[in-house]
Design a protein that fits this description.
By secondary structure, this protein is mainly alpha-helical. It has 10 helices and 2 strands, in the order H-H-H-H-H-H-H-E-E-H-H-H. The protein has a single domain (8-201), classed as Rhomboid-like fold (Up-down Bundle), CATH 1.20.1540. It is globular.
Amino acid sequence: MIQIKDVPPVVLAILLCASVVPLLGFMSPKLVMYLVYDKSYLRKLELWRLFTGVFVTGVSLALLMRLYFIYKFSMLILEFKCCIDHVPTEMELVFFMFTMFVPLMIGNQLEGINTFSECIPIALIRYFSELVSDDFRLNFFGTVMSAKMYSIVSLVIDYVLNGGRSKVYYGFVYALAYVYLRRNVFGVPAVFVKMVERIKEIKIERMFSPTGMGRRLGDGKRSKKKD
């Protein structure tokens, strides 16, 4: 059984975002209208939608499957230290997730998509396959294949099962474009690195620790001395 204390902070943060945002919409359906992204909202300076629009989705079995693949491939990325240059693997993964608002904006402009949630797993799978060794193999229902082939098969199956209506190819293309641009065009901004370093000082796991929930009633009280 997975324990929270064993999950790296960056993976835990991604899982929290991918689960809490959908739960907010589930608890208050009217709130969903304030979480999805559309280009018209930018004119109203509702910039938070660039973040919530990446993760918002319905609460269903599909969400649980996405969370599983997000966890699995985020852990693989960290385990195999998948990095592009001198930037640490953890920082690179955070920046990869952070910039997902870019394909969300492009997809909304081209096809009117309002969320990037269904694209996150395939984006992580392709990102991992681009950076891991070509000798690495993954098991796909008993068939052993390379990580790159695994990402292609996953993309095709998802597209077919959804009757050609799936937009997961945005995640696939985004991962390819991100790795190429990072290798040849731009680096991770220093201001972003500093921001993440400060956020890392916040221990997410403490929020779930029994000792961090507060003191029990009566704790810390000193007994009064009798006169």
